[in-house]
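Sample A.
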Amino acid sequence: MRRPATRRAFLGGLSVLAATPALGGPRPKVVVIGGGFGGGTAARALHRLGLDVTLVEPSRTYCACPGSNAALVGLRPLAGQVFDYVGFARVGIGVVHEWAVGIDASARRVRLSGGTDLAYDRLIVSPGVEMRLDAIPGYDCAASAAMPHAWKAGPQTADLARRLAAMEDGGLVVITVPDNLYRCPPGPYERACLIADYLKARKPRSKILILDAKDVFSKQPLFEEAWAARYPQHLEYVPKSRGGTLVEVDAAGLTLRAGGGAFRAAVASVIPPQRAPEICRAAGLTDATGWCPVDPLTFESRRVPGVHVIGDAAIAGAMPKSAFSANAQAKVCAQAVADLLQDRAPDIPKLINVCYSLVAPERAVSIAGVYGIEWAALVAIPESAGISPVGASEDLRIREAALGDAWFRTITAEVFG
């Protein structure tokens, strides 16, 4: 039987985590690995809860993935995606700009690339995803430079944007989409929409081809509606059932071979299968899927006690791998960590995810879900779900784009200050 969620538990899906009274005695130490939307949120929430927090993040800046598809086609500056960690240190959160290279769970220590280590009472791991460059024949590190996935926003985003701008009119752009699970399920289709719009306006004899390793995807009716209405001459979609699964690439020849044939691209963006990063695998946090199973009540690892995994690396049941999900999970996890360190039973949470996708400049569609725990797993609560209606007015699409932009400003201000 499911215990009713309390008000505090429901805060996992809201933008502000209420602080609890400061913990008495020496403050327990919590180390957070990863400074993205999950790790950054967790560090701030733990600090507000009175814990001694150290954030381990090798980069001094963070380039946000939400909004990066718009940056590809010049709808927003890539510099507007970049944030730093100055605000964390300003409020008293320790920040260590080194790689976490090992976890000794028995000794409760994190080994750093500089040769030192950090002790912890509880550890939160939020390292994002790792691209599986061994999963597609021909697609290795060198090939990813020629066919950038740009699925970690930053230099590859800028490179893909340059390639699109330099492409001659009449060229073919190919995007490949992996099977589930991967970061940001609707992201490839948003990217295809925005590139199609760019081609329609600036290189009208060009088109974009989507090769997909599956037949069903997030927001599918909404994207298909946009493709038919806006880009019938500039976008072609090939699902798994029609040979869309990528089989092999020839990076030197910019050729992609799928079940349905071979395609010579002027620009190719190959989004490979993904998994939890090496730090998770080396620590024994992953299972045969390549991801990290967790207890949805606390996000504590089901394999390594005392270590919690949030965000893209975690197996979070029905919750998608998104920035909104990572932010919500971080708040629930932070509260659970504080409870466990005080020998309190954590509340049963409900979590929220909302996702906005652009289908054209200043036009967006959205989907929202609420997730609860049943049979020791996070499941979607159907009556709480919401999705943009097919056939909606342009006014609604414009409002949803504005809401998505407001969400991005809000979450980045909350996390990075």
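Sample B.
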Amino acid sequence: MSVLKTFVLGATGETGKELIDALVSNKAFSKVVIIGRRKKIEEYASVFEGFDVGYCCLGTTHKKSGTSGFVKVDRDYVLKSAQIAKQGGCKQFHLLTSQGSNKNSWFLYPRTKGEVEEGVAQLGFEKLVIYRPGLLLCDRQESRPLEKILQFTIGSLDWWRKVSIPTNTVAHAMINCSLQTASNQQPVKIVLENTDIFNLSKIHEK
């Protein structure tokens, strides 16, 4: 197995934290770099050079950033980062979006996620994997009372992981997928829904 160099966007989020922990303990990766948000990402293009794999767990909320701020981070910033990474030689890009992503949706959240999926797909990565998890189950430090209630209720009932999934499960699925060898040399686009992510996280477990 070749040793890979990777970067992570959105490492301060709950899934990003789990991903970093899993990457640094995995011998398949020789270099793991956390790239934080910058106001003018174009001025930092050199930061994205020389990576084999890029993971993007970046995201904010409408409540925290407002409509324009949400779109700027979840669509525009992610897309620009992916463009620069591709120009820097990155071959794989793993993008975390959300269950229900749809560029034609009337609702802001799924529409924005669908738009960024389409934009990144047009960049031509050798391997693009889009992850669409349902409700993320985690012990979030940020206070979100309603989300905690939903996590407890849905997480307890969703035994088959149809609509919810732990953040560490998502992280392991992302790593497992990045280590799978493509069967051909053509650009590959893979879209993984909640159950697919759950199943993929178990592939390398013994």
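B remarks: DSSP finds six helices and eight strands in the chain. The mean pLDDT is 87.
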